[in-house]
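quick q for whoever's on today - can somebody do inverse folding on this one?? i tried earlier but teh output was garbage lol. tokens:
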């Protein structure tokens, strides 16, 4: 009986152990292997792409797990070799097979805490170095962007912040994508002052920032203004004393960015602010450092220590940052336009924020999520008048235009470049309205006696391994707009503006166009790469954004818009922008079309150079202390 009981106990123990091992193997299926395997499948047809889109959730989970491997796991399986090394060094007579087996058993028992690498197979296929422990995370970020058409840090910011908060890694002071909607710096005060000068006004925005953390922080805004607006200055100060604020300096864009970034990385930075024009209507403002909170006990201890040694007490450290921003803008029927927020980082506002407009509380009160009102009512509605000025030897006039001064184009040919990436899926309704309007206006009847338009469908990259950065399907040119159905089209992968224009240049052949309109959304800037090249465009380039404007444009795209005489808008249908003013003299590029339907003056050159002058790179205004020049 004793032997029977012993055997039964052993059998029960072995059964229990086997059950746990089986359950461990079944439940410990890390999702990254499946995600990468799914993306490795060819997706060159709409059917294959639809099949992969249906697997979006497991792909998302797998790529996110690979991206956060350093934060979710103790180590990687490939790097966990200490047991093998210990036995091999201590007992060399065992050879290499036994220590390797012991290491495998050890790794199996610790498998829930060890990340299962997949970068070795990927690296061998794409010719990369296998030794990079971060290769899985890099590949996950790249494939996430290509498949979901969004940066992983932007879309998965909550999960990434949770992982970062669970580790000792500290966020850097410079505000990045993970700082979007973070409540680190309170907007304590906001004062708007408008000085009306007839049909234009000088607008000043004064804000006071209070840091809510123990580290210095950066404030980041991206915003837009009408093209009639001109930024005139930005200042920083530790107090509201205007005589003590730092004076602005105008610098080339690259030099200003270099100085600003260098100050952000310094231990004791000199207060910098950087204001850049990054699009026809787009601006980016960064201010650093917003001083950290000073604990009351630290100030008390410092005072006591100074008294003991007989030193004079130090000056109180700054507790807040003041920023002044000024610009001039033309009057509209709604009033004086204010900056419209695209994105903020680190900064937030709440019911404690004190707001004033010309010394009074704004009416109506702003919504909790609203940075600024859209307009401030003018005290007197003035009719626009003609203005004349001389700049660099050229006499420039502004002339008021109304809606009757614009007409639709006639007997012209347009190229419509369609962004076919995945993020355009949410704009199907707007695309259907756009193409229905084009058909009604005769752009799809293949007749050249009114107007005509050709459609260029771009070819995105979907994140597959075999194609790398190459498109998963060829681009298309459709000379008949009726051949395209937005409701049935599969939007797929990711694509940058530079690639769209390169594909258009390859597909258009020798066909001349009077205008190029790129139909896209507002999520293109974060995906752009620096240093790309664009083809030479022989027609005005118009960026028509569905949904919202992007926070900025890369330098190459911005230069192409300016040099070609194009512009930016977010209206649909797009050919509302193609109206032409009934003037004998050509308008300043991009201005008249963008102001369609508004009674704004139209800038006009009365004397033009014989050759096209290169549009200079936008120069940012920087504000910093006079130290270092």
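ok took a stab at it. sequence:
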């Amino acid at each position: 009986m004793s032997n029977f009981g012993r055997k039964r106990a052993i059998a029960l123990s072995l059964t229990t152990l086997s059950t746990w091992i089986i359950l461990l193997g079944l439940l410990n299926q890390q999702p990254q292997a499946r995600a990468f395997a799914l993306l490795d499948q060819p997706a060159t047809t709409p059917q294959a792409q639809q099949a992969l889109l249906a697997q979006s959730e497991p792909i998302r989970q797998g790529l996110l797990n690979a991206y956060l491997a350093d934060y979710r796991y103790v180590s990687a399986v490939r790097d966990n070799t200490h047991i093998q090394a210990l036995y091999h060094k201590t007992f060399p007579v065992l050879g290499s097979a036994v220590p390797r087996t012991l290491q495998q058993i050890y790794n199996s028992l610790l498998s829930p805490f060890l990340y299962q690498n997949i970068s070795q197979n990927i690296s061998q296929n794409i010719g990369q170095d296998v030794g990079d422990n971060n290769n899985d995370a890099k590949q996950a970020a790249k494939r996430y962007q290509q498949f979901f058409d969004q940066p992983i840090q932007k879309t998965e910011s909550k999960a990434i912040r949770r992982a970062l908060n669970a580790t000792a890694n500290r966020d850097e002071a410079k505000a990045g994508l993970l700082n979007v909607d973070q409540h680190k710096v309170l907007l304590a005060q906001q004062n708007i002052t408008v000085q009306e000068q007839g049909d234009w006004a000088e607008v000043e925005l004064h804000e006071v920032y209070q840091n809510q953390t123990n580290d210095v922080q950066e404030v980041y805004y991206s915003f837009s203004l009408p093209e009639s607006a001109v930024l005139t200055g930005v200042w920083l100060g530790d107090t509201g004393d205007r005589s003590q604020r730092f004076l602005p300096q105008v610098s080339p864009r690259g030099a200003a960015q270099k100085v600003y970034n260098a100050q952000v990385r310094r231990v004791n930075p000199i207060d910098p602010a950087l204001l850049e024009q990054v699009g026809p209507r787009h601006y980016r403002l960064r201010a650093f450092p917003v001083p950290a909170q000073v604990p009351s006990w630290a100030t008390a201890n410092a005072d006591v220590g100074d008294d003991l040694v007989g030193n004079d007490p130090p000056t109180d450290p700054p507790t807040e940052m003041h920023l002044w921003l000024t610009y001039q803008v033309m009057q509209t029927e709604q009033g004086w336009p204010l900056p419209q927020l695209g994105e903020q980082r680190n900064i937030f506002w709440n019911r404690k924020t004190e707001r004033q407009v010309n010394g009074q509380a704004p009416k109506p009160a702003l919504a909790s999520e609203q940075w600024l009102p859209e307009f401030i009512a003018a005290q007197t509605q003035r009719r626009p008048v003609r203005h004349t000025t001389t700049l660099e030897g050229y006499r420039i006039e502004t002339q008021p235009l109304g809606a009757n001064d614009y007409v639709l184009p006639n007997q012209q040919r347009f190229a419509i470049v369609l962004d076919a990436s995945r993020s355009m899926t949410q704009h199907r309704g707007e695309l259907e309205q756009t193409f229905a309007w084009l058909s009604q206006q005769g752009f799809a009847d293949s007749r050249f006696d009114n107007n005509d338009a050709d459609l260029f469908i771009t070819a995105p990259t979907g994140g597959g391994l075999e194609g790398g950065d190459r498109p998963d399907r060829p681009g298309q040119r459709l000379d008949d707009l009726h051949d395209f159905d937005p409701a049935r089209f599969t939007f797929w992968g990711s694509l940058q503006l530079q690639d769209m224009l390169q594909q258009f240049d390859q597909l258009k052949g020798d066909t001349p166009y009077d205008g190029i309109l790129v139909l896209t959304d507002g999520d293109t800037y974060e995906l752009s790469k620096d240093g790309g090249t664009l083809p030479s465009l022989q027609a005005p380039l118009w960026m028509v954004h569905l949904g919202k404007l992007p926070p900025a444009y890369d330098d190459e795209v911005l230069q192409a818009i300016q040099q070609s005489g194009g512009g930016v808008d977010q209206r649909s249908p797009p050919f509302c922008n193609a109206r032409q003013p009934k003037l004998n003299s050509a308008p300043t590029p991009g201005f008249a079309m963008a102001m369609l339907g508004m009674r704004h003056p139209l800038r006009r050159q009365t004397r033009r150079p014989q050759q096209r002058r290169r549009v200079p790179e936008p120069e940012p205004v920087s504000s910093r202390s006079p130290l270092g020049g």
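fwiw Residues 119 and 138 are 10 Å apart (CA to CA). also The longest helix spans residues 2-27. so keep that in mind when u check it
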